[in-house]
Amino acid sequence: MPGSDPPGHPGRTIVVAFIVRRVIAAVLMLAVVSAATFAIFFLIPRALGQTPEGMASRYVGRDATPEAIQGAVKRMHLDDPILVQYGRFAQGIVAGQDYSLGPKKAECPAPCFGFSFNNNQPVWPTLLDRLPATLSLAFGAAIVWLISGVGIGVISALRRGTLLDRTAMTVALAGVSLPIYFTGLVSLSVFAYTLGIFPGGGSYTPITQNPVMWFQALILPWITLAFLYAALYARLTRAGMLETMSEDYIRTARAKGLKESTVVVKHALRATLTPILTIFGLDLGLLLGGAVLTESTFSIQGIGKLVIDAIRGNDLPVVLGVTLFAAFFIVLANLIVDILYAVVDPRVRLS
Amino acid sequence: MTTPPQSFLELRDLRIHFPTEDGLVKSVDGLSFKLDRGKTLGIVGESGSGKSVTSLGILGLHKGGGAKISGEIWLDGEELVTADQDHVRTLRGKKMAMIFQDPLSSMHPYYSVGAQIIEAYRIHHKVSKAVARKHAIDLLGRVGIPQPDKRVDDYPHQFSGGMRQRAMIAMSLSCDPELLIADEPTTALDVTVQAQILDLMTDLQREFNSALIIITHDLGVVAELSDDILVMYGGKCIEYGSAEDIFYRPEHPYTWGLLGSMPRLDREPTERLLPIKGTPPSLINVPSGCAFNPRCTFTDRTEGRSTSEVPELAETEGGHLVRCHMSREERRSIWDNEIKPMMEST
Ligand SMILES: Nc1ncnc2c1ncn2[C@@H]1O[C@H](COP(=O)(O)OP(=O)(O)OP(=O)(O)O)[C@@H](O)[C@H]1O
Ligand SMILES: [Mg+2]
């Protein structure tokens, strides 16, 4: 393409076609992910010797008679070929499904991820129940780290080599290397239990119940989680800004007589942020599937806490559900980033 | 502090040095010249001789970049090296503008060509976006972009190399600068477009009585446009004079080499008459004596001074300056009897 004149304007139809293509790709991606996840959770245990009866016994309790177990196998079709089972699983997600569990009938409307081994609750409503806590944590932290990380990165780049820059980058290095359960516990013990400025662990309250409490309880988790990412983003932004500021088009912007602040924000930051946007979308998508460490450290009943408890309790359907849910957010984030990128970077649209 | 000069632009002993890990890079080392309104100065010299660094220096674009700058730059009665940099900023784009060497990397990839021209115009003119847009379309039309009202919204990557160069020129001309520095403005263009662009710049010059500095490897372009020519070598001026001086009475061996290596239709491109052997000098460890001495074929005629003494830039006749150890008579006789006949014979 370089050298030739590509047809002038990316028309509306090209943009729409681009978006449609990406959406279809995302849906296919989800199908593949669900199949792969299903295979990991059902095929591998089977290969390792887990029998349909063993599976079924998780539903009917420990002391069940062989007849009861056989009944459960039949009702849940656990002896069907794996492909048929996957078909039923996928159908459940798309169209819903009815199970008969023991004496009672259980209805599982779409999207149906089955029932928890541990409390026989349907997985999907549990997920939805846990989602607000995870959303609050992830979005709040994202705002904090984006503003502080990018801000510090830009200032560090502009004041390169100064004491400020070196201090910021040292702190950032610490931020990248310190694990959350360490920073989380330290901040809890200092700010919550010793100084008493913020409420301690387990004090998360839904925003609908008490917005003030919600905010107070989340301040420490937000900052702890954001610290890690802010450190990463500060380093990324600094490196990006240093590179961009030496580009020829920055010199052109200065040659026009632009104010240095305009040069930095409108020209340099604009170019630096575009690749960071991609990483941001993926990081956020990943977090929406549950911030496992932060939620555990601060005992926030979010999706991350749900999955860690499910793993401990061998609760396969919940683990499977959360995995797919998380995969959904990652694919969605990818999709949004792709489309946003096409809006922000004019060079993407035609390709 | 010295008195302001009469000329519109005057450089006095300008030095631009970059401290690097390998040592001090003396990219520009004691450069002086004058340029009046309505006149054109051509700067020639091989790659790395300091042409671009000089032009960026005039615009004040080295400040803050770690460069050590000394000397004086007078523009229309104001000294720019010591001036308030925020004031110099307001001169950029309006009073002095530059056409950059590499138009693809010199335009912002995320903004449309029109937006970049509009921005340049609106920094110095308090007009609405719509008015500025009309001006941008008008400019794009003037530099020969077809259908400028449509292409104005294109992004730089959608333009061909030649079109980008023209858009770059449109951007630089947007505020009718009184001093225009064109750094290799026509290298990426074919001959017809090149002629159009050069016409465009001379039009601007005539219309606004602007001063023009044109930097190029193409001696043909220089010959066509320049009133005066400055030959740079290793960050210094080694010969300066009117276009006639440089083309008909050149006195420096390096200038002879440049003229001799001009491609000509009647010769094979590879067959250069007077190739300049060797490589450009290091700007960190400048050769002792005359910086050109390792490549000069006439060192035996300098009474041994070529490696021991730095030659002065001395006037040979009526504003024609040469930096060479050979005597004026010696240089003239070499040109008249050895070089000129050789160039004319083939
Ligand atoms: N910021 C800088 N730091 C260190 N050295 C530099 C810097 N900018 C330029 N130089 C050096 O200064 C010298 C002159 O560079 P300049 O760009 O002026 O050459 P030029 O004459 O324009 O060459 P060309 O014809 O290839 O454009 C080169 O050796 C270059 O490496
Ligand atoms: Mg150059």
TrEMBL record, chain A:
The chain crosses the membrane at residues 23-44, 135-158, 170-193, 213-236, 276-298, 318-344. InterPro entries: BPD_transp_1_N (IPR045621), MetI-like (IPR000515), MetI-like_sf (IPR035906). Keywords: Cell membrane, Membrane, Transmembrane, Transmembrane helix, Transport. GO terms for cellular component: plasma membrane. Belongs to the binding-protein-dependent transport system permease family. It is found in: Cell membrane. It is a multi-pass membrane protein. One of its GO terms (biological process) is transmembrane transport. This is Peptide/nickel transport system permease protein. It comes from Streptosporangium subroseum. It comes from the Bacteria. Residues 131-341 form the ABC transmembrane type-1 domain. Pfam families: BPD_transp_1 (PF00528), BPD_transp_1_N (PF19300).
TrEMBL record, chain B:
InterPro entries: AAA+_ATPase, ABC_Ni/Peptide_Import, ABC_transporter-like_ATP-bd, ABC_transporter-like_CS, Oligopep_ABC_C, P-loop_NTPase. Keywords: ATP-binding, Cell membrane, Membrane, Nucleotide-binding, Transport. It comes from the Bacteria. One of its GO terms (biological process) is peptide transport. SUPFAM superfamilies: P-loop containing nucleoside triphosphate hydrolases. Its main location: membrane. Gene3D superfamilies: P-loop containing nucleotide triphosphate hydrolases. It is a peripheral membrane protein. It is found in: Cell membrane. Pfam families: ABC_tran, oligo_HPY. The keyword Repeat does not apply. GO terms for cellular component: plasma membrane. The keyword Aminoacyl-tRNA synthetase does not apply. One of its GO terms (molecular function) is ATP hydrolysis activity. This is Peptide/nickel transport system ATP-binding protein. It comes from Streptosporangium subroseum.
